[in-house]
Hints:
By secondary structure, the chain is an alpha/beta fold. It has 2 domains: 43-184, Leucine Dehydrogenase, chain A, domain 1 (Rossmann fold); 188-421, 3-Layer(aba) Sandwich (Rossmann fold). The chain has 14 helices and 12 strands. It has helices at 11-27, 31-36, 86-102, 123-136, 156-170, 191-210, 228-237, 260-270, 284-287, 327-335, 343-346, 349-363, 369-394, 398-417; strands spanning 42-51, 57-66, 74-81, 108-115, 146-150, 218-222, 241-247, 250-253, 280-282, 294-297, 316-319, 339-341. Strand 11 (316-319), helix 10 and strand 12 (339-341) form a beta-alpha-beta unit. The protein is globular.
Amino acid sequence: MAVEPLEWDTPLFQTAITQYEQALPHADVDAAAAARLRFPERAVMVSVPVRLDDGTWSVFPAYRVKHSSVLGPTKGGIRYDPHVSLGECAALSMWMTWKCALLRLPYGGAKGGVRCDPRQLSLAEVQRVTRRYTAEMMSVIGPQEDIPAPDMATNEQTMAWMMDTYSMQKGYAVPEIVTGKPISIGGSIFRNEATGVGVVMVVERACERLGWRLRDQRCVVQGFGKVGGIAAHDLVHRGAKVIAVSDFSGGVHASDGLDLEHVQRWVDEHGSLAGYAEADHVSNAELLELHCDVLVLAALENQLTGANAHRVNAKLIAEGANGPTSVEADTILADRGILVLPDVLTNAGGVTVSYFEWVQDLGRLFWNRNEIRARLGEKMSDAFDRVWSLSLQRDLSLRTAALVGGIREVAAALSARGIYP
């Protein structure tokens, strides 16, 4: 008898489940596997007590959700955000499962985080949050069990603290416990750029299939951080014109193209796009409706919804973030003939190079930049071609085709292994 997943039943999880249900009829998997994959394997909720700099204490809720380990250890980011919840982590872990399977990586999906506002915490406080969170999760993470990575408001320094905390408990260095860490302690060349560059690889591949030239495209990028910033720079490097970018403070727009080097210097100096004087300022909502050829969504989930999807003025949408397009928006965009490059394919560059980092750590043998970029290109191209082909063969949206590809890989492994005992 089925049990409703009330503990993680949030709007974002409902989006993930709805997408899954829409893809299932096309995946041809057995009923037992289909039922098992609706639920996360394990969800852990802990409290993270932290002494603040002023001597007071605060306790933060924190989570780690593993969706499926049938293909191998679970993999997924750690985010610090005031809106982190069990349901959010459950949804993101499910998407990560399909993403890893689609790229044919030997991983399942996971996601975790701490419900806090990192902008209100000092660096020392963030370190204490990280180390206590890691200590609380010692029983569920491990190089062969669950491998964290950076996500929203976490970075290579966060991963260094996690790696050190885990290693101190084990008594020896364990660089393969996390990915996205500094190169000096086993991080991989090209990891920081991988997600953003992977987005552009998929956009370029789509342009080729559509008979477009990437250098002729006018692009808008929502998000100017670890994904959007890299993607914007790489788009310009490949000849495209970026006419608008945004961050948490809002967006900037120049119809004849932004000087991204100048924009980057401003952000590096001032911390955000606020006050940038060399372009027009727009809100994040307005930025989504600017006339362009390619719209890259590299910020937060649920940015295009039933309320604004009919005002989008792009020909192609690339999802650099996880879950930026609601189910209702997907339908509206499809009816309008706007192609969406789905998140489980488009932003998979990060986890792919994370996999490369893990493999390098396990073997203590490291590759150079050209090797990693070439391997990433091969993986992204292979996944894109399989999704595109399935979309044409079965008359599916690219999102459904990508999900079908991932679901089939996981379900085949689950059916082969069976349910223990």
